[in-house]
Amino acid sequence: MPAGKRQQSNTMLYSLVTFVGLFIIATILAVIFYVKFEDSRARAQESQRRLADIITNGDWRDRERIIGTVTTGQTYIGKMVDYLDKTVATVVGPLGQLRDSSAEVKVETVDRRLRDVLKLVQTRLDEKIDPNVAGLVPVVQKLKAALDRTIDERDGFNKELIELRQRFDDAMAATQEKEKQLEEEKEQYHQQVIDITQKYEELKLLMEKTSDERANTLIAQLEQEKATRKATSDELLRAQAELKMTQGRMERALDELGQIMPSPDHEAAAFEPDGKVILIDDQAGVVYLNIGTDDRVYQGLTFSIYDRNAPIPKGGKGKAEVEVFGVGQKVSSARIIRSQKKMPIAVNDIVANLVWDSKKTNLFVVAGKFDLNGDAVFDRNAIDKIKALIEGWGGTVADTVSFDTDFLILGSPPSVPPKPSPEDLEVDPMANERYEAALQKFDLYKEAQNRAQGLRIPLFTYDRFLHFIGYKEQANKGGVF
């Protein structure tokens, strides 16, 4: 074969081999691509099936309307989980261990707790609640409406109670005033009968005697009266001297005792707390105290509230005043009458009332003149009204200070008019009697004050007394008398 022919044949052979090799490679690559394509298509079909289990095509198109927009790096499923967690937390509070639970467990937990709450709520509502259709917001709204009705009813009852108490106090005051007037008139008439009878007997006896005998009888009576007065005066001077000596000895003994050991605070009993605040409902204006019927607490009792971290102030003014309206065996509820915004009531704050005591009955003495309504005029029956207030709070009242007296409420000293002159007596024969009565009242006032100071009995003004019993605010509003 010629050389040119052989070279052409070799070239064709090489081309054929190359084509066959490329065909084989292309076939292998095609097979590989086909296998991978089938695998990718199977995976895509599996992903499409799983996606169909999660969301439909219609839901996917409306995903932003259903779920909302998502931020970069956040999925729609993650967004829905966040919404679910916020909803569950709104119903049951902090998620805690529920955070890693499934949506099914979270929803079942919410449903179970909501049903438990509905059972408790049903005991407080007259309306029947279907747990299968009840929503949390409507239930809360029903509770709010029931609470508003209860508060309105309570306020109505309190208003009626205050009106009844006012009417009762007015009736009691009128009755006591009438009884006192009748008793005074009775004593006056009785004394008049005694005086008239005595004068009649004396005149009858004198009429039966001669003039000399009458004169002698009168002289003898006069001498006897002088002797009696002198003996009485001597006895009084001796008693005063002994009293002065005794007081001097007592003062020296107290001074010596004070040098040995400091004197105890004689007002310590006034600063003893009676209980404390255990719960506060600011929205309803109610506090709960740790004392109840076991401690002799009753409705209408008032207390002053003082800071738990500070001693009771000397003036007795607390951060708030409350009035008991509900009493249980161990706990009582009280409405807030007055409170300070800068010093709100806190749990464990102490409460106190000077008159009321769970273990004993305090004894008071009231002396002086009082202006109860702040009109710069002394009230005529102020002492009787204060006595009625003390007795209504569980205390007792005595007329004179003694070793058994716990507290003295002291008003302004009684005024004593100038001693009437003979000319005044001619114009007004009763002026001397009024002077003697006023002087006697002043002496009794000073005696009560001096004895209380000597016996170290705590003294209270009217305003300080009202602060210590938690009644200052109601007194200012005219709700006391």
Task: List its salient traits.
single chain; four-stranded parallel beta sheet; 481 residues; six-stranded antiparallel β-barrel; alpha/beta
Provide structural commentary.
There is one protein chain. The chain is α/β, with parallel strands linked by helices. It folds into five domains: 3-54; 66-132; 209-260; 271-351, Thrombin, subunit H (Beta Barrel); 363-476, 3-Layer(aba) Sandwich (Rossmann fold). 57% of the residues lie in helices and 10% in strands. The protein has twelve helices and ten strands. A hairpin with a 4-residue loop joins strand 1 and strand 2 (286-289). It starts with a helix and ends in a 5-residue tail after the last helix.
Low-confidence stretches: none
The major β-sheet equals:
6 strands, antiparallel, barrel
- CATH homologous superfamily (4th level) name of the largest domain: BRCT domain
User: How much helicity do the residues have?
Assistant: 55-70%
Number of strands: 10
C-alpha Rg (nearest Å): 48 Å
CATH class of the largest domain: Alpha Beta
Number of domains: 5
* Average pLDDT for all residues: 80
Q: What distance lies between the first and last C-alpha atoms, to the nearest angstrom?
A: 150 Å
Individual helix count:
12
Instruction: Tell me the CATH architecture of the largest domain.
Output: 3-Layer(aba) Sandwich
